[in-house]
Amino acid sequence: MHGEDGLKMTRRDMLQLAAASAVLLSLPAMTGCASVPKLKTASADQGQTLALIHGHVIDVIQGVVLHDRTITVRDGVIESVSDRIPEPGAECLVVDMKNQYLIPGLIDAHCHSTLSSEAEFNPFGVSTMMKQIRRNYVQQLAQGVTTIRDMGSLPKLLHKNLALIEKGELTGPRVVYCNAFTNVYGSHPDLDPSDISMFAGITMAFTGNPSFWFKDIPELEKKMRQSLENGASFIKLTMDNRSLLCGKGAIPVYSDEQLKIIFDFARKNDLPVSGHIHTKFGFDRALQYGMDSMEHAIADAWLTDREVLEMAQKNIAIVPTLIIAQMLAAEEAFDRIPDAWRNDFVDHELEVRRQMLNASPDRYVEPAIHQKNVEALQYYRKYGCDDLYNKGKFLARPDLYFNVLLHGPENLRKMKEAGIVIGCGTDAGVPYVYHGMLWREMEILERTGFSKQEVLRCATLNNAKILRMQDRIGTIDAGKYADMVVLADNPFERIETLRDPQQVIKGGRIFDVAESRAVKGSPPSVA
Questions:
Q1: Contact of 452 with 444, CB cutoff 8 Å
Q2: Is the pTM of this model over 0.90?
């Protein structure tokens, strides 16, 4: 698409042109991971016991610290957690934790691993984009995230990256995925690749379509079966009736017949259903059908006690992703932010956003991508939000996200009091939110009114429940995967210690991320 500023394609175009790059990257010389950061590792031999001694174990269920514990691991699984140190001469690899703190491996329950967080796509920056996509996996693990839930991807590219992780050629977390959005044609994300990119038809063959857009029920049923056959462990829907893009309005929604078919298929195949929801319209339909997890926070309503109680009674969880509201509440769109959107919480989040935009977050993103993202904010004032879509600039509506910041905290506190399972995710991969920043969402939850114990539970055990993996991850217990994060300080006293993990353990394999950061010379994280 040609705009006034030349040939540029944007976030949604990037969804496809990760695609275009795949045509180039299908060449062997371009598919390697040599330019992606490496992490120093250590592990016990196959069948050998790994003993982590003198570690303070964080119990996320009880919210207490178990001091000076020994964790034994064999073949990637925790064998025991005790106060006994292995006898001298025992055939095991002993690693002294030196009185550091061990938490369960973190889980980012909402991200997009094959997106590069670009607000605009530069056709001359394909190699940078593809490097960033590979970096996404490394960055997540380096920041203590040992499992992610991918909420919509370029499916073929995703499976290619998963194969690299499995073979050890790419460092990354465990990945739970839906393959792509299951959505009505024209609904969120409401841009048809063929309307914006001349490369769409060719590139989809290499990466797959990030949306399973359907036009009738036979096509819906066929695409759901195909996604299940390709390993999907849940279904992702988009429930809103209005676009989140500047310059757009109403968008198509599912009919009741279509939703019945989707939910019947999900129940028959034991698949959880999650849904993108920013509006009360979407919330009401999710509540009606008993969706397993709501994604994001709504912008246009205060929830009543009755609605929250019904949500709790139907065991509907939520992953609020407040970080996306923080970053997309673009004050650059206004001469002066309307008073109706101002309060102490919003003002503080805007200050944190400014720090992030003005930082050099090289640990999380290629510098050229962050620079372009910051430059793209000028379009709000240059063209005006209402005209951005016509100019080929696909930026989010700031009013939507200011209202999420306004309504989200109180609604979330009500949900917490009602006992609803609240998870933790970032929406990383979309513009301005970079992979490896789960700690930022956790700090926002604390500012919203969650205790440090509650925050840590959201990012571990609660997320494991949402992923239906609480029997394998989410706590440090015998029989679970040996996924842990080693921290210098007690996170129940100082949540900021999560910004800089010392070591990350995935399946019993130890990654020395602190040393890797020192070698790389990354700048300090923003507040």
A1: no
A2: yes
